[in-house]
Amino acid sequence: MPEKTEKPTAETTATAAEDRPRRRQARGERRISQLLEAAATVFSTTGYTAASTNAIAREAGVSPGTLYQFFPNKEAIAIELGSRLMHEMRQSYDEVLTPIDPAVTPVEEVIAGTVDRFIAFNCRHPAFFALMHGPDIPGRIAEEHDALHATLVTRVETILAPFVPGAPAPAVTRTARMCVGIYMAGLELILAHEGAEREAYVQELKDVLLRYLRPLVGDVVK
Amino acid sequence: MPEKTEKPTAETTATAAEDRPRRRQARGERRISQLLEAAATVFSTTGYTAASTNAIAREAGVSPGTLYQFFPNKEAIAIELGSRLMHEMRQSYDEVLTPIDPAVTPVEEVIAGTVDRFIAFNCRHPAFFALMHGPDIPGRIAEEHDALHATLVTRVETILAPFVPGAPAPAVTRTARMCVGIYMAGLELILAHEGAEREAYVQELKDVLLRYLRPLVGDVVK
Amino acid sequence: MPEKTEKPTAETTATAAEDRPRRRQARGERRISQLLEAAATVFSTTGYTAASTNAIAREAGVSPGTLYQFFPNKEAIAIELGSRLMHEMRQSYDEVLTPIDPAVTPVEEVIAGTVDRFIAFNCRHPAFFALMHGPDIPGRIAEEHDALHATLVTRVETILAPFVPGAPAPAVTRTARMCVGIYMAGLELILAHEGAEREAYVQELKDVLLRYLRPLVGDVVK
Amino acid sequence: MPEKTEKPTAETTATAAEDRPRRRQARGERRISQLLEAAATVFSTTGYTAASTNAIAREAGVSPGTLYQFFPNKEAIAIELGSRLMHEMRQSYDEVLTPIDPAVTPVEEVIAGTVDRFIAFNCRHPAFFALMHGPDIPGRIAEEHDALHATLVTRVETILAPFVPGAPAPAVTRTARMCVGIYMAGLELILAHEGAEREAYVQELKDVLLRYLRPLVGDVVK
DNA sequence: GATGAATGAGGATTCATTCAT
DNA sequence: TATGAATGAATCCTCATTCAT
Predict the structure, then answer these.
(1) Which residue from A209, B4, C222, D70 lies 20 to 30 Å from D7 (Cα-Cα)?
(2) Which keywords appear in this protein's UniProt record, sorted alphabetically (chains A, B, C, D) (predicted)?
(3) Which nucleotide lies nearest residue A67, CA to C1'?
(4) Domain D74-221 - what CATH class?
């Protein structure tokens, strides 16, 4: 995120009382974003455990002390980063995918749309993958991590639900989890390639999901 | 791979020179296995980066010094462990799956058999998953890791090949990679559950793979 | 002692130049008191070394920057605090105890009065104890600390002198130091208790001092 | 403590099995003593909080890592040091002072003996004073510190008891605490002086205690 | 070979102090 | 002045690795 240097030129009088404390926070907010971006880079490069706070600070171009002015510890950085990514992801698909009518939208489209959307998001934020995927993430973070995962699964369940009305809940959960797993696996391949090859993997992923889900759906829709 | 080239300060008869080292190597081999087992435990518990050599030595019931008598550094442990696991895995399926005639063995069976075999192996050796899955594995190891992965992929390609004779090589590679990815994703879910639920996930994994592959195969077989 | 010599960039009339600074000093004085109060709290809670300037600023409800507008460094805070406490203490007993005539006032009364007075002061200002008592106080502060201590000792010598006219100076000094030490020891016990128990310790302290000093005094007075 | 270089020259055969692990521990034990000595020096110089583990290691002539091979953290060093000092102190006076018969031993002697013994101990181990006296000692250590203090008080109570048979327990406790406080105050003065002046302070301390306690004792003995 | 001690660079974190606004 | 962000040296502690025995 580029330095926005928002003009602090006195705009009005009424907001002055609010402005003073906010101008301070503005710089802080910028720093926080900057640090989280740096953290995203470092995390996705080295993984959480091997990432050093000094490296993050260096990547952000600040001193270690500055980092600790905004985050109490390394964990908190990962947690905040995860939570922000999740928020952004939620927004990203909420706008389009929420209302899905199986009678109107065919599975193909749902899958293709969802995958495209998620892939786009994950290509923009490779840290998301690092955070979701780390088997070395300790303690408190795992919770956040799990929450993130659970949210994803729930989301998929929600999308799935209208397509498989008769299915028992545990089966739907299993399917949703499987979908998320497949998606992550595909994502890894996609992120590892570029250009046409990447596109090919995207298609491959869609195929896997479609073939996996169609039979389930078909029973109902047809 | 542990240091092997130690010169026995040639000074005795051929038999003696071979005998003593051999006994030593026997003890050494035991130590090495012991250490690798410990490493497997620690790696699969904490991940590679967070695993400390001291912890591995402790787990193995030896002193840190002893560990370094057999491995030059931490990396070497992971590499040797990975290589051994791969060997064992290879043997594990070589004995049965090598000759597959699509005309004789239906895809269902191939998939079910392969999955069962791999799953059994991976449940016996959870470290394999940890090693394949770690995004935090630094430098040199990644190569071994990749080699391991590549071997797996090649293996799957080999299995796949007779079923999709007309397919272009890159497509087969993509499919194989996708299969390995799906398998790893399924494995994670399987390892995370027990009993009936685990079985359900095993079945789910087979379903995914079968549905994914049948269309490809069908074109040919039918 | 806070920076005072700030040049008001001489540019106005004498009155203005005096007036503005004065108002400033007034606010400044309040800030300083505020900060010293906060410092007293923090010092007596955690000791000098463990006290952080940030904590003091927070306790005072100001930013760290503000603190450094009035004190050049942490040491200066302790020094100024000590010096103010000493001043207040001096005033506190000067008003009553200065003129003591052994022929008129019996030792019992002198001791009881002095102890009560000091105790009252120290209960009001627990930081005094923390400052006098800290063995962890570094460098320059020790001097101030010693000055404070020396002042106390001198004061006690002065009180003692008329009661032991014949005694050699070094002996009086020793006795005075011993008294101060005993007082501090008693004070610690007193501050550690409340209510009736506290009163009991106060009495105990008076007993100790009385029994210690009476023989010395008795030789003369009787 | 000087390096003892105990001769490991094979002495016998029977103890060999015990000797091997012990020789290792021997070096370790030596290091521990060395480190504790260094810690004693540093603690009594700078106080607990300001003492850095690096400084302790440096003082002991070892690397920081070595220190942590024997102590899990800074606290543990202080705790172990305190506990060792207490043990040594206990031994120091247990041998002589345990059986005191008021009818046989006059108070003067008891006090003089006890003080001399304690003073000798504390001059040998100035860290004891630092540890008992620190107002900045955090958390867990305070407990050990308090235990140390409590032990002292109890010890004094035990010594006192036979001399004041009729006194109520709380009063005895108060008196014992007062004695310990007076002792610590005197100790500070004693440690701060040398030669004849030091002796004079020792005498002064004895006088204080004697005059404080004689009235209590007198009631009974007479 | 085996042991446990030794090393020291590096990592997370704190804190006195300074600076831009 | 006041603020809060910025700094970087210093702290506690860990860990891969080496060494003496």
Answers:
(1) D70
(2) DNA-binding, Transcription, Transcription regulation
(3) F6
(4) mainly alpha
CA distance A85 to B222: 47
Burial, B213: exposed, middle or buried (Cβ in 10 Å; 0-12, 13-18, 19+)?
Answer: buried
CA of B215 to C1' of F10 (A): 65
Nearest CA in chain B to A138: B46
> C4 versus B148: which is more confidently predicted?
B148
| CATH 1.10.10.60 describes domain C1-72 | yes
CB of D134 within 8 Å of a chain C CB? The answer is yes
Q: What is the pLDDT of residue A105?
A: 80
Domain B75-221: top CATH class: mainly alpha
> For residues C125 and C88, is the Cβ–Cβ distance under 8 A?
yes
Domain residue ranges in chain D: 10-71, 74-221
Give mean pLDDT, residues C27-51.
91
For domain A8-71, the CATH superfamily is Homeodomain-like (1.10.10.60)
Return the closest nucleotide (C1') to the Cα of D69.
E5
* Predicted pLDDT of residue D135: 56
Work out the number of other CB atoms within 10 angstroms of the CB of residue B133: 19
CATH superfamily ID and name for D10-71: Homeodomain-like (1.10.10.60)
CB-hemisphere CA count at 13 Å for A26?
12
pLDDT in tens, D184-205: 999 999 999 999 999 999 999 9
Task: Name the neighbours of C, counting chains with at least 3 Cβ pairs within 8 A.
Answer: D
Rounded Cα distance between C178 and C109, Å, is 19
CA distance A47 to B139: 13
The minimum CA-CA distance between D111 and chain C, rounded to whole Å, is: 15
Residues 42-81 on chain A lying near strand F, CB distance under 7 A: 62-66, 68-70
Query: CA angle at residue C166 from C161 to C169, to 5 degrees?
Result: 60
